[in-house]
Amino acid sequence: MKVLHFTLVSMVVAGCSLPAFASANNADTGPVLFGLAQITAAQQFGTGGPEGLVFGGHRIRLGVYGNAVPGVNYFFQYKWDGLYNSATPGFPAGSSEGVSTALLNFRIVPQAQIQVGKFIVPVGLERYQFGERGNNLWFIQRSMNNDLFPNRDIGVMLHGDDLGVPGFSYALGIFNNASTTPANAYSAAHINAIEGLAPVSGGGQGGFLNGSGNYLFAGMLSYRFSPLFSIELSGDRANALGTVKHLGRFFIPEAASETTWNVGIRGGLSGVDYLAEYTRNQNFAGVAGDDVSDAYVALKANLRKLGVLPYDISPTFRFDHYEINSNPNWQYVQGWIGVSGQTLDNLTAGFNYDLNPNDPYAARIQVNYILPMGNAGVFRYNVSHPQNILAQSGAGFVPFGAAIYNTLEAQLQVGF
Predict the structure, then answer these.
(1) Structural domain boundaries enclosing 271
(2) Which residues pair with 352 in a beta bridge?
(3) At 355, which CATH number?
(4) Pairing assessment for the beta strands 312-325 and 250-253 based on DSSP bridges
(5) Contact 201, 185 (CB under 8 A)
(6) Closest CA to 138 of 298, 15, 13, 11
(7) How far apart are CA 388 and CA 391, in angstroms?
(8) Do 96 and 83 meet the contact criterion of CB atoms below 8 Å apart?
(9) Please, what is the Cα angle at 138 between 259 and 155, to 5 degrees?
(10) Contact (Cβ atoms closer than 8 angstroms) between residue 34 and residue 12
(11) How many domains, in total, are found in the chain?
(12) How would residue 334 be classed by pLDDT, with cut points 50, 70 and 90?
């Protein structure tokens, strides 16, 4: 299936990430309404099957934020996402609709704030520090490491800034361990969609007042040395079910816990910016021994700031390496595959054009081409199983973040 992606975004508050918002001042301000919409068009090449132009809605958001009383901030966002996914095998039909974020932040002092509600778990530089809205991403699609994080969950988090050291911040949280986003390793959707199995990771709190005790703990430390260099270290641990299953073709030894840790760096000088992360997930989706990692590096150069053009045009490049490097504890009884030494490399190249330099996320055009650079093992396997969400057009297993490949995407972002 050829796919050309075109995205229209009515954005939220320009350039405001959630951690920065939660640290807002104590003034008693009224509600501020914001909106985000992304309409996409994508053209995929070389699949050997039907190939045509596909339009859709990437992110459509509407929300409100403000200070309820001095020291108490609120943020609410409703989403209609993934409107182009209705025909993608294994993905939920139609859009992913619902409350994306709903939180209250109690600002005791800048160094000690308490955040409660549903929000992004503090793990991953791009995933967490680039905010809830997705309006300030360098690329249309996030990197493949996004598969390895728990994403959004419901819980409570202690966080703060400048603990005696300017530029230092931290976040520590406990969550229900029932990821509200299916496309990640903590929802077990990778396994569930293949055979309709019960979740192996998490377990959550059952939706009632009595909890199961299966929680997810997460934390992040970050330090900004200078505009040229900042670093974050983050990680999480989630309880898994810790049993063994023989279901259909699968023998699944389940782990007692699942963990992810991440290190990320970013910085820039004179219009040239970089971003890089290494992520490692152990006991992926709660399967004992499944060890998955991802590493990427991204570059962006603003040609106006470099004095090359009078317009805010920024070429962008990202190389992303995804690897399954575990022992083959998850065995297919029918002998489909083993799971050691599997790799997938993608190169994304394109540009961003911000129509208003003073409000760069209010109107933006993004164009990307995603080019597979190499693969090995299971990522080459020609999967015919119709319910396998990791099989795209017979190309083999891919993580959710690599479902779009050999694809030209275009995206227009506007907002209020």
Answers:
(1) 4-415
(2) 314, 366
(3) 2.40.160.10
(4) unpaired
(5) yes
(6) 298
(7) 6
(8) no
(9) 35
(10) yes
(11) 1
(12) very low
Euclidean distance between CA atoms 127 and 306, whole angstroms: 28
**Predicted confidence (pLDDT) at residue 238 exceeds the cutoff of 90:** no
Indicate the range of 147-161, 259-273, 307-321, 387-401 predicted with least confidence: 387-401
The answer to whether the CB of 348 falls within 8 A of the CB of 313 is no
The full DSSP string for 54-109 is EEEEEEEEEEEEEEEETTEEEEEEEEEE-TT-TTSTTSPSS-EEEEEEEEEEEEEE
pLDDT digits 0-9 by tens, 168-178: 999 999 998 87
Residue 164 CA to residue 112 CA, distance in Å, equals 12
pLDDT single digits (tens) 7-64: 333 333 333 334 444 444 555 577 999 988 888 888 887 666 666 777 777 888 899 9
**128 CB-contact burial (10 Å; exposed 0-12 / middle 13-18 / buried 19+):** buried
Report residue 412 CA to chain centroid gap.
Answer: 20
Q: What are phi and psi of 389, to 5 degrees?
A: -65, -15
Mean pLDDT value across the chain: 75
| Residue type, position 318, single letter | R
Query: Which amino acid belongs to residue 330?
Result: W
